[in-house]
Design goal:
It holds the Pfam family DDAH_eukar. One of its GO terms (biological process) is citrulline metabolic process. This protein has 263 residues and is α/β, with parallel strands linked by helices. The chain has a single domain, classed as 5-stranded Propeller (L-arginine/glycine Amidinotransferase, Chain A). It is built from 5 helices and 15 strands. It has a 3-stranded mixed beta sheet, covered by helices on one side. Strands 3-4-5 form a 3-stranded mixed beta sheet, with helices on one face. The longest helix is centred in the N-terminal third of the chain and has 17 residues. The chain is globular. The chain starts with 7 loop residues before the first strand and ends in a 6-residue tail after the last strand. The structure holds citrulline (CIR). The site of citrulline (CIR) has 18 residues, from loops.
Length: 263
C-alpha cells in the first residue's frame, strides 16, 4: 500500500473573512468568490482521487481557518493537536478538537512552544519538523516527544530563513523522493532521500501534494509540471492564484490520512 494512499480528509469551507488572511507581502486581498472556487476545485480533486472528505463550516472569527493543515498532524492510528505560532490562528485548534476526537482513537496535544502543520513533512521513515517563525525550537522538541509516544521518529531541521513554512519549500513525491527548492536542498536536510529540485523562479511549486497516484501542483508553475511529468509522475495542476495571495499552496487546505477500516 502506497504511503500516499489517503482515503480520508478534513477541509474547512472558506469564510468571507478569508480576504483578511495573513500574508507576508500584501499584493491585494484575494477575491472571496475565487477563493471559494479554488477551494471547491481542490475538494473535487481530492474526491476524484478516492478520498472521503469531511467539510467543516466556515469560521468568521479566524480568517486563516481554511488552512486546516496548520492545526494538527494526522496519522492512521493517532492525531496530534498543534499550537499555531500566529497569534490570530491560536484559537483554530480548539475548533478542530471535536473533529479529531470523533475521527481518531488517540489524540495527543502539544502543550508547549508552538508548531504549525505546514512545518511538518511526514515521510515513511521519519517526520521532519522545520523550525520557523511559526514553529519554535521548544514546540519542535515537544512534538518530537509526542511523535515518539505514537511510535514515530521526529527529526528537527531548519526551515529556510524568510520562508513561511518548511513545506512551502518541499513535499513528498513518493516514498523515496522529495520535491525541494534549491535554497532548502542546500542545507541537506533530508539525508537518504532523492531530491527533485524546483526550476528557477518556480520555488512556489514545491508545495505540491501527492494523493494516490496523482501529484497536485499549482497551475502557476508549468515548468515544474513538465519536469515532474518527464520524471514519470501524474501531475494534476490546480488553480491557487487567489489563495497564493495569502501565502498558501496545496497541502495547507486539508488534513489527510489513511483510515485502515474505512474501505
Ligand atoms: C498564514 O499565514 O498562516 C496563512 N495565510 C497561510 C497558511 C498556509 N499554511 C500552510 O501552507 N500549511
Amino acid at each position: 500500500m502506497s504511503y500516499h494512499a489517503f482515503n480520508r480528509a478534513i477541509v474547512r469551507t472558506p469564510s468571507v473573512s478569508v480576504v483578511d488572511g495573513l500574508r507576508a507581502v500584501d499584493v491585494g486581498a484575494p477575491i472571496y468568490e475565487d477563493v471559494l472556487a479554488e477551494h471547491a476545485a481542490y475538494v473535487a480533486a481530492l474526491e476524484r482521487a478516492g478520498v472521503r472528505v469531511e467539510t467543516l463550516p466556515p469560521l468568521d472569527a479566524f480568517p486563516d481557518a481554511i488552512f486546516v493543515e496548520d492545526t494538527a498532524l494526522v496519522f492512521t492510528h493517532a492525531a496530534i493537536l498543534l499550537r499555531p505560532g500566529a497569534a490570530t490562528r491560536r484559537g483554530e485548534t480548539e475548533e478542530m478538537r471535536e473533529t479529531l476526537d470523533r475521527n481518531f482513537e488517540r489524540v495527543l496535544h502539544l502543550r508547549s512552544g508552538t508548531a504549525e502543520g505546514g512545518d511538518v513533512l511526514s515521510t515513511p521513515s521519519e517526520v521532519f519538523i522545520g523550525t520557523s517563525a511559526r514553529t519554535s525550537v521548544e514546540g519542535a522538541a515537544a512534538l518530537v516527544a509526542l511523535l515518539a509516544e505514537i511510535g514515530l521518529r521526529g527529526t528537527v531541521v531548519q526551515s529556510p530563513p524568510g520562508v513561511l513554512h518548511l513545506k512551502s519549500d518541499c513535499s513528498m513525491l513518493d516514498e523515496e523522493t522529495i520535491l525541494c527548492t534549491p535554497r532548502l536542498a542546500g542545507a541537506e536536510p533530508f539525508p537518504g532521500f532523492r531530491l527533485i529540485l524546483t526550476p528557477e523562479r518556480e520555488e512556489g511549486a514545491a508545495n505540491a501534494l501527492r494523493i494516490g497516484d496523482e501529484v497536485f501542483i499549482s497551475a502557476d508553475f508549468p515548468r515544474s509540471a513538465e519536469l515532474l511529468g518527464q520524471a514519470g509522475y501524474r501531475v494534476k495542476p490546480l488553480k491557487t492564484r487567489e489563495i497564493a495571495k495569502i501565502d498558501a499552496g496545496l497541502s495547507c487546505m486539508s488534513l489527510r490520512w489513511r483510515n485502515s477500516s474505512c474501505y
